[in-house]
């Protein structure tokens, strides 16, 4: 097995998944605004330190995705974050795209930027301790969206990024995110997600990327958040699996889901329902941002005296999602008292 495949497989080890803590400066500001905390360098550092020093999180967390600012920061005792994570057996990763920008001549669609100079940036990140990377493309669903133009330009960019990562010895997490905003049906979501995945695997193949040394970060196939009738947990599991079975090669070690705008409990329940229907050709795991952090962020509220409560809230979600990796989560577990 190559080093890349070994890293990819370690990231989807049984019972474990990834914490996405790679919010860009703009996104983390939005999260902090929601709890009335000012987004300063120090507040962002303190918040990430809280997550990364949570005792026992490594039982359920295999890797953490960092942002450019965060990979250069240290804990209060001066330990660089990548080193701190590695000392707990957690693999550090890095978001390397520079964001989704308007796609020229395609109203309402985006193209993700960041390829220029990427080879040099990957080398620097590897030196800073990163062993995997992430690049996110986004697609909206509407009558005329996603367009073939948007599907193929983003697939091409994702594959260029993935090839550069493998050349640099980093596992690329390939993230084509079909957004679930809108009132579309789950069938429309399935069609768009299938189309996007098909194009991504054509480009990855044509650009010589070894699927075995990659992970797919996918959206679950859901009804639009504003749809009048929303699909149940069981329907979501069945329709999502049907799409991945048709479009994701078995050589891919794992699919690590994003949570999108789902509630933390829905994200756990959906993952659990899919794993209950296993075994599958790939590991089905998580790479959640909001669904792992929301309760912790709320409990913290920017106050040092709340750090322990916030860490408990994060540990608890990590544990439930760890259980969902093997289909052994039950919603009743949410009622358990928070351990002292
Ligand atoms: P969410 O789980 O909050 O969607 O974030 C995951 C992520 O990294 C999106 O790129």
Describe the structure.
With 340 residues, this protein is an alpha/beta fold. Helix content is 44%, strand content 14%. The strands form two sheets. The protein has an eight-stranded parallel beta sheet. The protein has a two-stranded antiparallel ribbon with strand order 4-5. The longest helix has 21 residues, at 148-168. It binds 1,3-dihydroxyacetonephosphate. Residues 20, 136, 175, 258-260, 288-291 line the site of 1,3-dihydroxyacetonephosphate (13P).
Structural class per helix/strand content?
alpha/beta
| Major beta sheet summary | 8 strands, parallel
Strand percentage, roughly? 5-15%
Helix content: 40-55%
Q: Tell me the span between the first and last alpha carbons.
A: 43 Å
SSE pattern, N- to C-terminal: HEHHEHHEEEHEHEHEHEHEHH
> What small molecules accompany the polymer chains?
1,3-dihydroxyacetonephosphate
Shape: globular
Mean pLDDT: 97
Count of helical stretches: 12
Contiguous low-pLDDT stretches (5 residues minimum) are none
Strand line-up in the sheet with most strands: 8-7-6-3-2-1-10-9
Task: Calculate Rg over CA atoms.
Answer: 19 Å
Number of strands: 10
Question: Would you spell out the secondary-structure blueprint of this structure?
Answer:
Blueprint: H1 3-11, E1 17-20, H2 25-34, H3 41-52, E2 61-66, H4 68-71, H5 81-87, E3 91-95, E4 100-102, E5 110-112, H6 118-127, E6 132-139, H7 148-168, E7 171-178, H8 186-206, E8 215-216, H9 233-247, E9 254-257, H10 264-276, E10 283-288, H11 290-300, H12 307-324
Parallel strand pairs: 1-2, 1-10, 2-3, 3-6, 6-7, 7-8, 9-10
Antiparallel strand pairs: 4-5
Helix pairs in contact: 6-7, 7-8, 8-9, 9-10, 10-11, 10-12, 11-12
This protein binds 1,3-dihydroxyacetonephosphate.
Residues 20, 136, 175, 258-260, 288-291 line the site of 1,3-dihydroxyacetonephosphate.
